[in-house]
Amino acid sequence: MSLNKIGSGILIISIAAVAIGQNNVNGKCGELETAFKFAHPSGQPVIFGKQFDIRRLDLRFAEATGNGVAGSEVIVRYMWKWFEYPYQEHPTGVWSTAYNLIRCNTGTKGAIEVPEYKLVPAGWYKGPYLLGGRRPKFEELEISLIDSKGKSYTFHVSSAELVTARKLGVFRTTFTK
After folding, report:
1. Could you tell me the sign of the dihedral formed by the alpha carbons of 176, 67, 145, 55, in that order?
2. Contact yes or no for 103/115 (Cβ under 8 A)
3. pLDDT tens profile 90-140
4. Chain segment 2-54, per-residue pLDDT in tens
């Protein structure tokens, strides 16, 4: 798994092959958010990529001591690429990023359960510069934890890692700050 550190502290990611347990999954998630002016251009999408099924995510956020990071906001972004044209700096177009997201709050043990999601990546250009396989494509999850001090930690989980985790049925991991 790859990760990106924002803020201070050491971040360690480990994949747990055992169930976290329902008593740890006590945070809450809101509704999926899809209408972002900064992540989606105006107008309706005109081209769609292959659906990507993301299983339920059992996530736990912990301090280096192992104690859960309780009462923190978590933002899970479902990131995909789409081909954008016209684009000022690139006369033949460029790959741009778009995303949908869900906001969650960790419970007393620092855990959340993110419901499964079937993402159909969308694009807002369908024209002559869509050569070959330039259809929108799911890339990764970007998971951000904002702790009680306002520090942000960002973790990335690639589509390949999610495909591998499908064999377990549920993606379970602990992110340590």
Report:
1. positive
2. no
3. 888 889 999 999 999 999 999 999 999 999 999 999 888 887 778 999 999
4. 434 333 333 333 333 233 334 444 689 999 998 776 678 878 899 999 999 99
How far is Cα 120 from Cα 138, in angstroms, rounded to an integer?
Answer: 8
Cα distance between residue 108 and residue 5, in whole Å: 24
Give the amino acid at 69: V
Global pTM reads 0.82
Specify the 3-state DSSP secondary structure of 3: strand
What are the structural domain ranges in the chain? Answer: 2-16+24-73+93-137+161-176
Question: DSSP class of residue 88?
Answer: T
Nearest CA-CA partner of 104 in 174, 29, 31, 26: 29
Tell me if 158 sits within 8 A of 140, measured CB to CB: yes
Measured CA to CA, the distance from residue 1 to residue 173 in angstroms comes to 11
